[in-house]
Design a protein that fits this description.
The structure is a homodimer of 237-residue chains. Chain A has 237 residues and is mainly alpha-helical. The first copy, chain A, is 85% helix and 0% strand. The first copy, chain A, is built from eight helices and no strands. In chain A, α1 packs antiparallel against α2 and α2 crosses α5. Chain A is elongated.
């Protein structure tokens, strides 16, 4: 059995926390390596100067990192607002619609397969402590986890920066050569290698077979670049 | 109290299912409207012909839609594989490490606040039916929901197509005019309007205050476009 997937709980929780940053880096870098790479490849087939490719690439990196970073930040803020308003609602309902909440709690225990006797007893015990009851309803009735208030900002920065770092990899060859075709050749080699290495570590992290995972990540990049190259050629002609 | 957030369960579940497609459309369109818009805006400040902008924009749309669509498809497949392998593992553990699984189930009931007596009784009842027990462990110990096998493909198509549709909005003005500055002016007007309308519906759908939500979505687009314009100018000079 794969040791990586063994679920020792303490270990798992620790693993999850330390991987919040990694998860953000993966999100940002996977798009950062792919989209600017494909855009630059697409333009290489359609323009004569690397200058245009560099300008377009830099503009894309700015646009993409802000869309992902700022988008992620605002989504995180919304999640917090949503959690707070649902929390207030649950407290309100526990106080004022107690009967309905009791029914909903019993329903949960019924769904997981407890007998009616235990449904009643378990509900009674949980409902004794209001805070505990509300926490239970938030997590298991609504499926909401308490969001970390500082996550949104940190996450936005991590994702945005990773996009920039990822995007500079495929773009950098075009800084140093004059011919788009030569830039493309180096960019393809460097980026596919990076995508493979990145995909390997990403797969290791998420417990997927790493060679297959690495191949998949590289494939997405290659297909996107080929498609961008194709349509750009089409529109140029 | 906001009628929209009232949680009537049947209604809610139906709402969630019908909004799977909408959610995909929102994901694809939000990036599709923003990134190609910002890229085209960035290039408008740095190049003389709308031709380059159209080619770069089309290449970006191809790259972005494939990265998002294919990426989403493979992520969905991975989620399914992960679910299947965890399901097998749970069945194995229930058969061969019964004692440990009993402890983990008791732990769950302890964490939600049941007395030791009820922890034991509830665990005993759940463990009677193996299928029911495994389903319980999958959902509440591991937090995994059974993924719909056809979701991955559908989701990829919806996201990819929405990206293309979204991306053609900011790009279309450049098809019809020769001056990048004029194209930019029309593109800004059309796209900010679309972002606002799109943000309004998106917020309505997710239960956020719609005017504020619309403003936020429009703001992300505007900031991304301004930044792309700024860095493109910088690198052109």
């Amino acid at each position: 059995m794969d040791a990586h997937l063994h679920h020792d709980h303490d270990h798992k929780e620790e693993h999850l926390k330390s991987s919040d940053v990694l998860r953000d880096v993966v999100i940002g870098m996977s798009d950062g390596l792919t989209v600017p790479f494909a855009l630059a490849a697409g333009l290489s087939g359609a323009v004569d100067s690397t200058n245009i490719i560099v300008i377009a690439g830099i503009a894309e990196i700015a646009a993409g990192s802000i869309a992902m970073g700022l988008g992620g930040y605002l989504a995180g803020k919304t999640e917090q607002d949503h959690y707070s308003s649902e929390l207030k609602r649950e407290y309100y309902e526990v106080d004022n619609l107690r009967h309905r909440e009791i029914e909903e709690t019993k329903e949960f225990f019924k769904n997981i397969g407890l007998s009616e006797d235990l449904q009643n007893k378990a509900t009674e015990e949980i409902a004794k402590d209001k805070k505990q009851w509300v926490e239970f309803m938030m997590k298991y009735e609504l499926g909401l986890e308490k969001p970390d208030p500082r996550r949104a900002t940190k996450s936005a920065l991590n994702i945005g920066l990773s996009y920039v770092v990822g995007g500079l990899v495929p773009l950098s060859p075009y800084f140093f050569v004059d011919s788009p075709t030569e830039g493309l050749r180096i960019s393809v080699a460097v980026t596919l290698l990076c995508l493979f290495v990145f995909g390997w570590f990403k797969s290791k992290m998420t417990g997927i077979q790493p060679w297959w995972g690495a191949l998949k990540v590289m494939l997405i990049g290659a297909v996107a670049a080929a498609a961008a190259f194709g349509v750009a050629k089409l529109f140029e002609g």
